Amino acid sequence: MRNFTFSVVFLTFTLGFLSQAASAENPIRKSEDGFDWLIKTSLAPRHYNFKGTFIYYADGYIETSRVVHKVDETGEHERIEVLDGKSRIVFRNNDEMKCYLPDNKKIYTEKRWFRKFFPDLLPQPSKRIHDSYDIEIGKIQRVVGYNSQLVKLLPKDNLRYGYRLWIEIESGLLLKVAVIDKDEIIEQFAFADVEIGQDIDTDVMDDGSVDFTDDWKTEELSTYVLAEGELNWHLGVLPEGFRKITEMRRSLMGKPMLVDHIVLSDELASVSVFIEPVDKKTASPMPGFYSSRGAINIYVRELEDKKITTVGEVPLNTIKLIGDAVNLHP
Prior knowledge:
Layout: E1 2-3, H1 20-25, H2 27-43, E2 50-58, E3 61-72, E4 75-82, E5 88-93, E6 96-101, E7 106-111, H3 129-132, E8 133-143, E9 146-155, E10 162-168, E11 174-181, E12 184-196, E13 217-220, E14 223-225, E15 233-235, E16 243-250, E17 259-265, E18 270-277, E19 288-291, E20 297-303, E21 306-312, H4 316-324, E22 326-328
Parallel strand pairs: 1-19, 7-13
Antiparallel strand pairs: 2-3, 2-12, 3-4, 4-5, 5-6, 6-7, 8-9, 9-10, 10-11, 11-12, 14-16, 15-22, 16-17, 17-18, 18-21, 19-20, 20-21
C-alpha cells in the first residue's frame, strides 16, 4: 500500500449508569441509554461555549490545535488554529467557513457541508446506527478534570471501526474519542485542557485578528447540491449499513475544475467519493490503495475517462467495496 498527500477540504437525556449485572440482564436498555448519550454529545456544541487545546494522534504523528467556540443568538462561531507545523486557522460562523493558510498567503472560503472538527465530530444519529454498531456504556472516568461517561461503539462486522467516546456528563461535550481497529487505537482526539460554559470574548472570533496583507489570494470553493440521480452516477450494491446521504458538484483546493462528490454514511463513519476527468497532462496517483493517517483510507480507480477516488474512515475492504460500486448510469 502506498502513501500520498490527498488534499481535500472535507474530511434532557438519560444520564443513568448501568451496572454490569443490569447490562447483562437488559442489553436493549443498555443500548438505548447509549444512544441517548450519542444524541446528547452531537447537540452539545449548539448549546455550550468552550475553549481549549486538543491533540490529534495517529501512527506516531501528533498535532496540537487550539479551539474557541462561542454560541449566541445568531448561532455558532468557532476559531481553530493548528499550533504544530504549517500554520492553519479556520474561522466558522454557522456553516460559513474561512481557512487561512499564512505560509501560502491564501484564504479559502466554503460552506461547511460535512466537514467536522473536534469535538463536534458526531452527526446526530438515527436508530439505524443499531444496525451497524452495538452501544455499550462503560465506567465514569476522569478526563482533563471533568467526570466523563465512557461510551463504546462496537462494530457488528469487519466493515467498520469501533469507537470509544468520553463524554462530559453535564454538557455532553466530547472530551476524547479513540478509533479502534482489532482492539488497537489507530486514531485519537483528546483535549489537553478545556473550559466549558465560560464567556468568550467576541474579538477572538473575528478573522480580523489574522495578520494578512493585500497580496493574499482569496478563493471561494463553490458547492452545488444536486437532485437524486442528477450526477448520472449509479451506486451498485453497498456494504451493509451504508447509504447515500447526498450528491453534489463542488470545487476543491488545487483542482482547476468542479468535481462530482457523493457522500455515504452508516450513521457514524462517513465515506466520500470524488469523480473527476483523468488529467493526462499532470501526474496523478495510479489506481490502487493508498493510506493516509489513522483511520483514513483511500482507493483510486479509473472508469473510462474518469478517476474515482474513494476516501473514508473505514477499513480498506469497505473502501474498495464502495469505490467499486460506483458506475455510470446504464
